[in-house]
Amino acid sequence: MSDPQPESATQQSRTPEQRPSRLVVLAGPTAVGKGTVAAAVREQHPDVWISVSATTRKPRPGEEDGVHYHFVTEAEFDRMVESGDMLEWAVVHKVARYGTPRGPVDEALAAGRPALLEIDLQGARQVRQTMPEALQVFLKPPSWEELVRRLVGRGTENEEERERRLATAREELAAEPEFDVTIVNHEVHDAADDLVTLMMADPQVRP
Ligand code: 5GP
C-alpha cells in the first residue's frame, strides 16, 4: 500500500500554533445577517478577532463608539484615508463611508489571531487586490424572498433607504462567484460555526 500523500514542506515544518493566522473577509448582500453572524462569532469564539470599522454614519440606538464602529467625522475619515490608515474603504448605500483601519488587523494577525472583516462587496474587492491571501467568504440568504423579508423586517430604514438597499442587494447577490466559499445563512449559529471552522483551518489550504 502506498503512503498517504505527504504534506507540503510548509505544513510539515509548522505546528498549528506557528501557522500564520488566517484573514477572512465576510461579505454578502444587505440584511443577509453579516452583522448578526459576526456578533455570534464574537460571543461564541472570543479567540477570533473582529475588526471594528470606522464610519461616517451616525450611531443607531444601542450602538457604541469603539464597539460596533468607530464613529468619525468626514474630516477624520479623510485624514485616515490620506495617511494610508485604511486597509480598504467604500461609500455604502451612497450615504456614508465605511473603512477598515489597517493597524489593528496587522496586529491581530501578527499575534496569531484569526481575523474577521465584515465588510461590503466593494471593500471585499479591494482586499482581494491588496491581500490576496485572505479567504473571501460570501454569506447568502436562503432565498431572495427571505432577504426582502429580513430587510423590511428590520424596520430601521425609511422607504427610500430600503429601495436603495434592495438595489444594492441585487447587485451584491450577483457577485457570489467571485468568492472562495459560500455560506448560506439558514440559521445564525450554524452560519457562525461554519465561518469559524473555515477561520481555524490551516490558511495554507484553500477550501
Ligand atoms: P450598517 O450601516 O447597516 O451597519 O452597514 C452597512 C454596510 O456597510 C454593511 O453591508 C457592512 O458590511 C458595510 N461595512 C461595515 N463596515 C465596513 C467597512 O469597514 N468597509 C466596507 N467596505 N464596508 C463596511
Q: What is the strand tally? A: 9
Bound molecules: guanosine-5'-monophosphate
Order of helices and strands: HEHEEEHEEHEHEHHEH
- As laid out across the biggest beta sheet, the strand order is 2-7-1-8-9
What about the largest sheet?
Answer: 5 strands, parallel
CATH architecture of the domain at 9-51 and 114-200: 3-Layer(aba) Sandwich
Secondary structure: helix percent: 25-40%
CATH class of the domain at 9-51 and 114-200: Alpha Beta
Catalogue the unreliable spans: 1-16
Spell out the CATH superfamily of the domain at 9-51 and 114-200. P-loop containing nucleotide triphosphate hydrolases
Question: Can you give a write-up of this model?
Answer:
With 207 residues, the protein is α/β, with parallel strands linked by helices. The chain has a domain of 130 residues: Rossmann fold (3-Layer(aba) Sandwich), CATH 3.40.50.300. Helices cover 40% and strands 18% of the residues. The chain has eight helices and nine strands. It has a five-stranded parallel sheet, sandwiched between helices. Strands 4-3-6-5 form a four-stranded mixed sheet. Strand 5 and strand 6 form a beta hairpin. Helix 2 crosses helix 8. The radius of gyration is 18 Å and the shape is globular. It starts with 8 loop residues before the first helix and ends in a 7-residue tail after the last helix. The protein binds guanosine-5'-monophosphate.
